[in-house]
Amino acid sequence: MTKRVALLAHEGFPDRAKTAVGVLRYADYDVVAVLDREIAEADPDARVADYLDGVQDAPIVGRTDEAPEFDALVIGIAPIGGGLDESWRPDIEAALDRGADVISGLHYFLSEDADLARRAEANGCDLWDVRNPPSDLTVAEGVARELDARIVLTVGTDCSTGKMTTTRELYEAAREQGIDAAFIPTGQTGIMIENWGIPIDRTVSDFTAGAVERMCVERAAEADVLFVEGQGSIIHPAYSAVTCGILHGAQPDALVMCHEAGREAIHGYEEYPIPDPAHVAGLYEQLAEPVAPTEVVGGALNTRSLGDGEARRAIQAYAETIDAPAVDPVRGDAGDLLESIL
Asked: Which helix (H) or strand (E) holds 300?
């Protein structure tokens, strides 16, 4: 039976709740409600379809008690730093009191919160901290390039430019074309969708590349193409180390670079401008070259803020800038990139 879930996305849906959006778009869950008290207060009849096209529809409610019956509450928003917003606690407690599990992608582990852990135990519920990595990780052996599979990695000019979405769309397009492909989840949203994976941004730095390599080795035994979910950006002042670890651990054969139309500075770090995307693409290739040479063979441009005509022109300009074919994988067809990738 398909698991019924409610998505907590207070004050963030949809733009700042990318986990909630990813679950709505790709997860094999029955989403019964989205929690966003700001939207619900402004419009008691609000629904997901009022804000997003092409995903599951569901009512938007203000708190857990207003949601239909569900099996799990998913924390669908992750603030910078991954802490628990205390205003969410009543909804989490109410979910546990209803006998529902709680799935969290926060850096704050709910299972280590004494009050929540006691409540979960009393109600026979599970607390799944998605960002809790395996305890037996180790350093990379540098063997990913030797695997009998083509490895494709999404990279970006910044965080939240669509790397998980692009990876997923490429994976699904490949499967539709009969290609034996696998999706390698490295972040909380991908892990929730796939129900497996390693949260790369929570690993010990020495073991980051090894964690990615482990997943590639595991899936290469059963797939011809591996689509690895990228994280962060090598020009990000806070998250570049994660990006580099994935790049060197996966040793990809091809890169697809993600960018958001109109974004000129690092989100949340606006004093850091984003260089020309062609320059960023070159930086990725230069960083990879000593370990496992690769190149940017395609681009994904998030055009959600643009009209149709503007979007087409922006995608064409982006393709010319990076000298590779480009698409908006949500607005268009990620399958258009597969020929250049494969």
From this structure: strand 296-302
Mean pLDDT of 109-132: 96
Pairing of strands 265-266, 30-35: unpaired
pLDDT given for residue 1 in this prediction: 66
Q: Report the CATH number at residue 162.
A: 3.40.50.300
Residue 176 and residue 293 in one domain: yes
In a domain, 335, yes or no: yes
pLDDT digits (tens, 9 = 90+) for 262-271: 999 999 999 9
Residues whose CB falls within 8 Å of the CB of residue 216, separated by 6 or more in sequence, listed in order: 144, 147, 149, 151, 184, 226, 228, 249, 250
How far is Cα 99 from Cα 121, in angstroms, rounded to an integer? Answer: 10
Which DSSP string do the residues of 18-77 spell out, in sequence order? HHHHHHHHH-S-EEEEEE-HHHHHH-TT-BGGGT-SSS---BEESSGGGSPP-SEEEE--
With CA atoms as reference, report the closest residue to 22 among 5, 38, 37, 39.
Answer: 5
The structure's pTM equals 0.93
Nearest to 333 by CA among 298, 285, 289: 298
Q: Is residue 153 located within the same domain as residue 92?
A: no
> By percentage, how much of the chain surpasses pLDDT 70?
100
pLDDT of residue 275: 97
